[in-house]
Design a protein that fits this description.
The chain is mainly α. It has a domain at 16-72: DNA polymerase, domain 1. It contains 7 helices and no strands. 14% of the residues are buried.
Length: 111
């Protein structure tokens, strides 16, 4: 995952598309690996001087996504969440919609 001769700042920039200032802030705060960034308690991450909560949450999510996706050989380009219309409209999906199977039985494919 990390290149052996790569500095922690360069690794953060390459893997998380992070600007050099944030990468330097993290390393100055003692965070030098993706695993540390992804899984240290949020209170400890917020203790890094110069790092605000929105940035901490964003880079933490990116680090977790990278760690989950990269071992499979994929490259993280951007984290996207699919919109859920029932949540956005403020109403839950109906029980009948939730009860509908999303996988068709094998009998549907027989001729």
């Amino acid at each position: 995952m990390e290149k052996p001769s790569e500095s922690p700042e360069a690794m953060f920039q390459r893997t998380l598309h992070m600007d050099v200032r944030f990468a330097q802030t993290l390393t100055a705060g003692g965070i030098v690996t993706l695993e540390e960034l992804a899984y240290i308690p949020i209170a400890e991450l917020l203790g890094v001087q110069g790092l605000e909560e929105p940035q901490a949450q964003l880079f933490r999510k990116r680090a977790r996504a990278y760690l989950l996706v990269d071992p499979m050989g994929a490259k993280m380009t951007e984290i996207r969440l699919m919109p859920n219309p029932s949540i956005q409209s403020g109403r839950a999906a109906s029980r009948s919609a939730l009860a509908r199977p999303s996988v068709r039985p094998a009998a549907d494919f027989r001729r």
